[in-house]
Amino acid sequence: MNTWESIISYKRYGYESSETNSFRSEFIRDYDKILFMSAFRRLQNKTQVFPLPGNVFLHNRLTHSIEVASVGRSLGNIVGAKILENNIDRLDESAKNFYKYELSGVISSACLAHDIGNPAFGHSGEKAISNYFITQADNNINGKALKDNFNTEEWLDLTNFEGNANALRILTKQYRGRLPGGQRLMYITLASILKYTCNSSEIDKSIVSQKKYGYFQSEKEIYLSIVNECKMNSIHDRQVRHPFVYLVEAADDICYRIIDLEDGHRIGILTFEEISKAFLTLYEQLLSDDPQKIIETNSVLSKIGDRNEAVSYLRAKCISGLIHTASNTFVAHADEILAGKFNNTLIDLVETKAPYLREIEKISVDRIYNHHSVIQVELAGYNVMSALLETFVTAVIKDTKSPIEKKIVQLIPDQFNYTYTDTSAYEKTMGVLDFVSGMTDGYATEIYRKIKGIDIASHR
Questions:
Q1: Is the pTM of this model over 0.90?
Q2: Other CB atoms within 10 A of residue 453 CB
Q3: Cα–Cα distance between 272 and 260 in angstroms, integer?
């Protein structure tokens, strides 16, 4: 049976070292490693919801990830203090220090990396990758249908591409010419981003942790090593989440529920009256047991003349209220979460106290996610990603390549190019997906225009 001690790991994946850092904990080192990754830096040019703007600053994947990390740090601090307080007589000194000082670093690091596997153009990028393989399944390559170049599990990975699984691959994969262990993160950091605990053949939408899948077949052994190291027990043959995942997931949920609405106001989709009503209603529900704070908030709000500043103030208040409510929810269900019996999300339970969260989600879906500017970038991104895959996948899989296909293969960076090695069609294809899914919106569009002859590359 798991304890709050047994689920902690102090080991680093893919790297054993006796070195110690007097000025940084191992968990803060993970944050720094992720922050300086080129894959993380590229998130600045990947769509979050809205098309990347020219004169109005909205959120992209990078700013979203940084804000989620900030919220996650607060959740880690609050929950760590509560776990320490409630288990003070059962924890050894190392575990006490972990929950007092380190949990916040683990959660913020995992939050920083949670979107690193998302392709360009938001979720339409994921859909484009999946749909390419579905629609091209019967194309003849190497004398057989495309799908017959892969086994059943591999094909499910490709026809249901998952950004969460891609994040684990990016963080742990030893790419050609690179050191073993990928980014060599702490096992506990990796465990904290494993939102889904099954492979692509085991999806079960009735179970929160299996609504999607968490690892590709290529990372199965890595996934199992994380499970074993961090004591992620199975119940009735069902792999359960690590408890810290719920905090990372809550931080993400809090940010996109609130900040997408703020962006909707910035870009003019929502009026000030609409967004202020939404935020005030939510805040009053979250703070229903503390009416004095509501009075104080309204008093401060009445003194703010700038509407954008007023929205920012309300956004901050709502996020603060959600952080404390989600933290209290985690603590109230801590035993279920630790035992792997919690089949829910923290934000779903927060909605029982603040049901207006559901209305905010409905507003986001109806008014923001289906806004014409969002649909336009989704359609454009879908076409760009589909064309890139059509160009590269066939070229790398073919045993006998035409002269033009040989040229195409040369465009793939060496670290992702497995055509010159004795690897399977699956690994060669995953190399293409590493290349294409890692592109920014702008770079993907540029490559698309050049290979289609819309723009002719100039010699430099």
A1: yes
A2: 7
A3: 14
